[in-house]
Amino acid sequence: MIRVAKKYQGLALLFQAKVPNNFCSHALKLVVYIINRLPTPFLNHKSPYVLDHLIKPDLSTLKFVLWLSYSISLTACRTKLSPKSLKCIFLGYKPGTKGYILYDLHSKSIFTSKNFVFHENIFPYHTSQSDTSQLPIDHTHSTTDIIPFDFPPTLPISPATTVAINDNVEPMSFKEAIQSDCWQQAMASELIALDKKHTWTLTHLPPGKKLVGYKWVYRIKYKTDGSIERFKARLGAKGFTQTDGVDYFETFSPVVKLTTVRVLLVVATANNWFLHQLDVDNAFIHGDLHEEVYMKPPLGLSLPHPKLVCKLQKSLYGLKQASRNWNQKLTSELLFLGYKQSFADNSLFVKTQGSMITVLLVYVDDIVLSDNSFFEIQSVKNHLHSKFHIKDLGPLKYFLGLEIARSKTGLILNQRKYCLELLSESGMLGCKPSSTPANLLRFSLKHFCYNCKSV
């Protein structure tokens, strides 16, 4: 389908400019060049160029195919009476260089140049007579009527529509994020939360110390049905700028195994236990930082003095040791409550008290809580909320890509949302589905007979 779209878009450029079919290959190459730099819904509203190069392309240099242009003549054989420029046609871009591919209307030759002037919306082959499929013959004393192409007027777009479209796209930089009120509020909420936790103190950089960079990361959180839940801005440190043995030492942090999750779901369903889910807001900043780490002040933070830097007191997201420090903090708190850590899975915690059994699973900042007593679940929630900022998500519905639906007869698991995300990221969301394994009855008898004869 993509090949067909590119083919007809290339033909549309040829028909619009009324040029010979000899330029078809150049038109198709330009269509591919433009498509690779335009966002598409199949790639989460990102362009293939951004996913490949991790930077945004410069769209200011995009030009329309077969526009009239004048290239500055820099040849050595040019005399004082020779024309200073050549009348050309723009054909496309030269791969690997900053030059443009041009067609000389006089010498009928194709060359590459970066010194030229565009005459946009002017097509040299727009004449009153119908054009043929052959290249025109350029006579010395003949003139060609150049008719400017009038684009149809576009419908005005309301500002509200423009803002809505921009808000649904995750910004790539701070400069893009400040253009939207939703992302400004998200960044303000993040800075307020970090300030309440005393994540850093402002001080001068000591001699010999190295600054760690930072990065704003913007994500749109979706509900299980695909609708937008909230806009989240996360301030993270650039951990790759840290020095091993100076800024950090140990980094390992365990997470729960998927096998452990499945076993708990089976046991909880068989014994009719409660299954609840918790989420820790800004989990990493609860971990204590033991090393001296200095970070550049983030954009959006007001400073009393321009030369001040941030001395981190808590484990900010992105630091090499952040996940480990948070896991140690949570583990020590659970051990204090009487939980025992499993040797088979370090993210599995079990507490027994008489006939009451409480099981707790930890995956970074997501916690699954199961118990045969609802009052004990509420007691654990209240205690964790007093130590950390816990968000109670209620009964377990979505965890590690698993959608969980519980009924009186049992538990239903599916990965519909996870599969749709994989298809969207790979650009296969609009493709035709096929059964797996393949249905052999769909193949005709003729197909099998042909294979038998070939063998």
UniProtKB/TrEMBL annotation:
| Keywords carried by this UniProt record | Oxidoreductase
Q: Name one Pfam family in it.
A: SH3_retrovirus
Cite the Retroviral polymerase SH3-like domain residue spans from the record.
77-129
In Swiss-Prot or TrEMBL terms, this protein is called Retrovirus-related Pol polyprotein from transposon TNT 1-94
Q: What organism does this protein naturally occur in?
A: Cajanus cajan (Pigeon pea)
Tell me where in this chain the Reverse transcriptase Ty1/copia-type domain is found. Answer: 198-438
Determine the domain of life of the protein's source.
Eukaryota
List its EC numbers: 1.2.1.27
TM region(s), chain numbering: none
Q: Name one GO molecular function term.
A: methylmalonate-semialdehyde dehydrogenase (acylating, NAD) activity
InterPro entries reported for this sequence: DNA/RNA_pol_sf, RVT_2, SH3_retrovirus
